[in-house]
Give the backbone structure.
Amino acid sequence: MSFSREIQERINRFAKEQSQNYLQDAEMTYMEKLRKKSGQTKRKIDKQLSKFKGRSNQGREAQDDMILYMSDYMNDLMSQGLTEQEAFNKASEEMKFASNSEQSEDLNERFQQYYETRDPADYEAIGLFYGGFLFLGLGIGGLIGFLTGGGYEAFFDRGWIDTAIGAGIGIIIGIGLGQITNAIIALKKR
Amino acid sequence: MDNLSEMLKGVLEGIVLEIISRGEIYGYEIVKYLTQMGFEGIAEGTVYALLMRLERNRLVNIVKKPSEIGPPRKFYTLNEQGREKLMSFWAKWDFLSSRIEILRNDGGSKHEF
């Protein structure tokens, strides 16, 4: 069964656009990748790039495969009583690329797993660890600075500088300990 | 049977490999074969994408023959790697189906596993 010229052209155009979506990046030329991403400016870029090599062998092959596959499918639909136009609409809908690559499935699974196993108590515990270590560091660092700086008598005479330095270092150590604890909790939850 | 797509997701590759193992076949012929078997719910785009994947993973040999439409038509046969993959699929299938049968028939006694 042969198609009208218009439908054949539409099949070819559809296959040219859609077949690229079934290819991996490595199978496409740089120009194909560009074309894939260009979206609305596609036609404009195509026109400009048409003088250069714009299609990989794999891209051309995928396009040919899709033309044949879609034509077979449309013939099948037409033999069941659909008009050429209806068959084209149905076939293009079915053949439209859906992002179901292994990578996207894996990513979806990981997102799902993350949200399913996400426990607010963990975040609360992590926050408390950060807060606890921060206060502990601040207290210990400040005290050491205060004592080594000369205690009460020296505090108002530059002794406060030692206290402030001690407190600052204590805060840094506290945040560091908080991060380590955060990492341990995150690893345990994997 | 309706709404089989989700269940078939993990086994469709094995089914298609088995169909290809029966002899040289081209893309849409596989869809027709599946339809005749009763797998009508399978989206045509799924089989096309699957064939691309089989080719990419080098599980099939391809011979191109002229077609009446224009571009050459690809005919698929299984290669050695494809046969190994198919055998591995059936081994997994046998394990899975036997476990499910036990689960279905044994009335819930846990020691069978």
